[in-house]
Amino acid sequence: MTSLTIVMPVYNERETLRTALDRLLAVTMPVPTEVLVVDDGSTDGCTETIADLVDAGSVRLIVQDPNQGKGAALRRGITEATGDLLTVLDADLEYDPADFPALLQPILDGDAKVVYGARSYGGHAAYSFWFVLGNKMLALWASFLFDAWLTDIETCLKVAPTGMWRKIDLRSNGFGIEAELTGKLLAMNERIFEVPISYRARGREEGKKIQWTDGVAALWILARIRLRGK
């Protein structure tokens, strides 16, 4: 595994997109890295803020129109990726791209094929009781269904070989793609290696989009994959 693609699905992130990319591009990666931004029908002109990065070749930009959901944007990125490994970074500044080298190391050392960045949910004003409890319940539910032990399945930072992302054949268009990916990996008997990462949750007033209904959908997606045995 000698190269990496980082897919960044984007929908109306004008306030944060440029900062997220500047932080990402400032990180020294252990392998050559392609940054692939998939704009999912944004209407706020957010991609105008990164036009110079695209022109310079630091970032590849793909535009989908109309908006189809995070899952659809990620699936497009998986199709377009050129790296041997693939991961995802949201544009909302919740995750620190400086964590990527630590996530890549177990794969580069041959100790793992799939690595997740596990959030610890330390003290932060944007965390709500139900947000944290919901994420922990989803991780426990996946662990129970597939006889594994995971602490965070909804994390954005997931690293795996690009060929594996494609083999899984993801179908979800929305946020359910996180649960679908984990369920299908575990159904394939892939053991997921977790590495602690930093995390700063943003609140509704800052534009957080995921809803409690996405959590309920994730529970059903995991159960359906387990029952089908796929």
Brief synopsis:
The protein has 8 helices and 7 strands, in the order E-H-E-H-E-H-E-H-E-H-E-H-H-E-H. It is globular.
Question: How would you sum up this structure, described in words?
Answer:
By secondary structure, this protein is α/β, with parallel strands linked by helices. The chain has one domain (4-228): Spore Coat Polysaccharide Biosynthesis Protein SpsA, Chain A. It contains eight helices and seven strands. It has helices at 17-25, 51-55, 70-80, 100-108, 129-146, 162-168, 177-187, 212-228, and strands at residues 4-10, 33-40, 60-64, 85-88, 114-119, 158-161, 192-197. Strands 3-2-1-4-6-5-7 form a seven-stranded mixed sheet, with helices on both faces. Helix 5 runs parallel beside helix 8 and helix 7 (177-187) packs parallel to helix 8 (212-228). The longest helix is centred in the middle third of the chain and has 18 residues, at 129-146. The radius of gyration is 17 Å and the shape is globular. The mean pLDDT is 90.
